User: Fold this.
Amino acid sequence: MNWVSEQASTPRRLSPRLWLITIPSALISFERRSDVPKLPASGSRALGAVLLLAAAGLGLMSTRGPDASLAYDGPLAPVVRRPALLAGLAGLAGTAFLLRSTALLFYSAALTLAGGIGPVELEEPTAKTLLGRD
Assistant:
């Protein structure tokens, strides 16, 4: 049983290309082919726009000060303290609301919980990493 749990274990670190680009695009593709219910239209697009603006602001903050961190000591602190990581997760949630994607919204919430509680460490996205210039 121990060998099975070692072989089937989840990765401890997720690269930004994986958690921010590859998996969300696969989820959206899956959702469009299946009968997954969409989020309600009332207010979801406005909330998505607000979240995307917040993500853009956090992204600008993280590029101007690469070592910047937010002062926060509550639940989900490993995620909330890092502005670039928080920008990526807010961008995912904003995109989910704009597209009315239930699967993408649950994915962003699960990723936030997994990164905040500790079973998975999310690498911070950088422009060089996302553009393939690493």
User: Anything to note?
Assistant: Residues 40-129 form one domain. The chain is about 65% helix and 5% strand. The chain has a mean pLDDT of 85.
